[in-house]
Amino acid sequence: MSEDQKALLSSTPSGRRKRNPSIKKTVATKVDTSNKINAPAIQIIPQDYEFVSEIEKDREVIFKPNKGPQTDFLAASEREVLFGGSAGGGKSYAILADALRDLVHPQFRGLILRRTTEELRELVQKSQELYPKALPGIKWSERKMEWRSPAGGSLWMSFLERDQDVSRYQGQAFNYIAFDELTQWPTPYAWNYMRSRLRSTAPDLKLYMRATTNPGGQGHNWVKKMFIDPAQWNTAFWATDIESGETLRWPKGHTKEGEPLFKRRFIPSRLSDNPYLYNSGDYEANLLSLPEADRKRLLDGDWDIVEGSAFPEWDRSIHVIEPYDIPNTWRRFRACDFGYSSFSAVVWFAVTPEEQLVIYRELYVSKMLATDLAGTILDLEAEDGPITYGVLDSSCWHQRGQSGPSIAETMIAAGCRWRPSDRSRGARVAGKNELHRRLQVDEYTNEPRLVVFSNCINTVAQLPVIQLDKNNIEDVNTHGEDHIYDAIRYGVMSRPRSSAWDVNPETTRHYRPADLVFGY
Hints:
- By secondary structure, the chain is of the alpha/beta class.
- Helix content is about 25%, strand content about 20%.
- It has helices spanning about 70-75, 90-100, 115-135, 190-195, 220-230, 275-280, 280-290, 290-300, 315-320, 370-380, 405-415, 425-440, 455-460, 485-495, and strands spanning about 20, 50, 80-85, 110-115, 140, 145-150, 155-160, 175-180, 210-215, 235-240, 265-270, 320, 330-335, 345-350, 355-365, 390, 420, 450-455, 470, 470-475.
- The strands form 4 sheets. A 9-stranded mixed β-sheet has the order 5-6-7-4-8-9-3-11-10, with helices on both faces. Strands 12-18-15-14-13-16-17 form a 7-stranded mixed β-sheet.
- Strand 13 (about 330-335) and strand 14 form a beta hairpin.
- Helix 1 packs parallel to helix 2 and helix 2 (about 90-100) packs across helix 3.
- It is elongated, with a radius of gyration of 27 Å.
């Protein structure tokens, strides 16, 4: 058995657990001596259980999770968790170890899925190397494609190639369902349907859905919307609808009416998190030889790589930063692209003394009237201090064949003041070029000229996937979701780059970026 298959310290009990809410994410190091045979020799990281007994030193280590993401995955308590990123991060072994945890429970019913039988074969082989050593007495049925523990728990390993294949699981109930390489499913149909199969009559068995994947594949976009975009990585968040972005809630009339349904979490992994593959350098060399887009997906675990992206300069690791308190002395302004049937996008900017733009807040809403949008904006920025100005889509000054005030006039009358943007074709191209420059790293400050707070989730999700216009590569595709982009473009063009960026402050006597004034 290879070193990366060696398992963790014996820890999972054969059944006796006692609740201890004070226990946090710690590695269990005790097992139940009353049933040595059934206790799997695998190191589990429980969320809120304390395990009793003391024979771990007598058990062989079969699989030990790598520190970091793999350990976080085994410890995760959220209902739905995606473990993914670069190739070689230890995803397959993590999902096999995770499923093994509760197999010692007589009522456990688990299911691990691959899209095709060919892809399933490798996973089955890995389980056959690991499970008999981790859980003595466990039996494999080739006919049923099922593992069964001495206690009676079962784990199916199956495939689900087409949407209609979900019918084979009708009437079935599982405590644990896992999809290996989730982006191979082109739509979320299978994932959503299998959630309906998740139930248990055993009060001490929690319900889990788990998935592993690399970026890319037919299902990249829906997986990104479901797990990657809604929250900061490795942070639990309430499950959202991937189309509307709204939190999923209990329906009217239910005893939990209005409460969020369950939580999700994305745990990123990198090749460097798996020392067994990373340290030799051979696998990394293979990934480095790939074309750029594939290399960024499989080596860097980059979810923002899109063919035909308008802004290849975007790098989440440098353009997305943790929120911080913005000094009152920094100038602030906002920009808005208004829409009712589609979306209204508002972004707030702060200007650092070095003229770096910081997007520190966003608002992304649909079906909101101008008066309501104005009130919401004013409420959000009530404690910001002075907002120097606002830039609004110039078409909002048009009355569009209707009598009465325009959208812009309505918002201004409510106290939310704006100046019009420039919507000419030339301004669109100039705005795109200015954003390119802002995303570049300044050679003197070694920082990009525009950064985004991580809690601006729509900006972080949409900006890197804006597509080029195939008929005009100097502009973006206006048929895509470009509301956030337009608002950012209005904002950056209100403070176009000064030649001061091209001046070395160490050699220029009168370079004082804090005194520079930009504007229309």
